[in-house]
Specification:
Blueprint lengths: L1 H12 L1 H14 L11 H15 L3 H8 L1 H26 L3 H12 L5 H8 L4 H26 L8 H25 L1 H7 L3 H19 L1 H32 L4 H12 L3 H11 L6 H22 L7 H5 L11
Length: about 325
């Protein structure tokens, strides 16, 4: 078990490196990776099952105790990122599938990797986890409706079919994880350190499958899509931080909301795009899986060197605030 824990730690620490290496291999030697495409939905379900195993009641308690920061962050995420993606796609004149794929990337909830980045950035971890959890639970309704409103001009959107897909790959696996944790708490607790390894492996396989199926598309549109994804991510980080500032939230909450808004669940984006739009539409989410895990550590490292001054209410309430674990 200790060996697996060590491997899991290394896998999480160098996640971006592994993604880049595997994506490169899938690009130059696509044949071995092509059959993996049929397992994308199952693999994402595995990642969400792992999230369910790590969820705790305190992750949702913060929503009731201090709702303003959580609601501010989640609203910012589901407004800034879809509209930002729509604007970038429109200005850049992206082809229909790529435009719809970028809006899809902007419409999915936050990714669990954001929790680690917030922790490293000395942000408010409890707020980060609460935002990830709440946005994920809202995704079955929010994501299809946002796509219908913003991406329907490029590709047909079936909100009901997408709702069912999100329930299947997110809600059911998370619920199953919660049930397993309730029934076998001791066994789950012992395996928590290995979960990152499983999640990293699943996401890497998903990325390799989509890259191998999009070799020609990457060759012709790769730089354009990378530019769009990079601008989208930077826009989310900046406007997320600015929104928290306008709401007079303290620095630790600003950092948490910034990272949560800027980092998306790219795995879900890949699965939904592949199932409902086509392989080309999955390209923005594939590139985001790489870029978000480069920009995230960069901004986390920068902020980790900056002191965080908490407001007086934060200091007085510190003893009552729920604690969250890094996932």
């Amino acid at each position: 078990m200790r060996l697996l824990e060590s491997i899991s730690h290394l896998a999480g620490k160098y996640f971006a490196v592994w993604v880049i290496l595997v994506a490169a291999a899938a690009y130059f030697i696509p044949a071995p990776f092509l059959p993996l495409g049929s397992y994308i939905t199952i693999l994402l379900g595995v990642v969400m099952f792992g999230m369910g195993l790590t969820l705790q009641p305190v992750d949702f308690k913060l929503v009731l105790q201090k709702p303003l920061p959580v609601i501010t962050g989640v609203l910012a995420q589901f407004i800034i990122m879809p509209l930002g993606a729509f604007g970038i796609a429109y200005v850049m004149g992206l082809p229909d599938e790529l435009a719809a794929g970028l809006v899809l990337l902007g419409s999915v909830p936050g990714g669990t990797a954001s929790n680690v980045m917030v922790y490293l950035a000395k942000g408010n971890l409890a707020l980060s986890v609460a935002m990830t959890s709440l946005s994920t639970l809202l995704a079955p309704l929010a994501t299809p409706l946002i796509l219908l409103a913003l991406a329907g001009q490029w590709l047909p959107v079936d909100p009901y079919a997408m709702f069912l897909s999100i329930v299947q790959v997110i809600i059911i696996p998370i619920t199953l994880g919660l049930v397993i944790k309730k029934l076998f708490p001791g066994t789950v607790e012992k395996s928590l350190n290995v979960i990152p390894l499983i999640s990293v492996a699943a996401i890497i396989i998903i990325v390799s499958a989509v890259v191998s199926a999009n070799v020609e598309n990457i060759a012709s549109s790769g730089f354009m899509v990378f530019s769009a994804v990079m601008m989208h991510n930077i826009l989310g980080l900046a406007l997320g931080y600015g929104t928290a500032g306008l709401m007079k939230l303290d620095e630790s909450k600003r950092r948490a909301i910034s990272i949560e808004v800027g980092m998306q669940n790219s795995g879900l984006g890949v699965a939904l795009a592949t199932a409902h739009f086509g392989p080309l539409a999955a390209l923005p989410s594939v590139i985001a899986a790489v870029w978000h895990n480069i920009s995230g550590p960069i901004i986390a490292t920068y902020w980790s060197k900056k002191t965080v001054e908490k407001d007086k209410n934060e200091i007085m309430d510190k003893g009552n605030e729920p604690q969250a674990s890094v996932r």
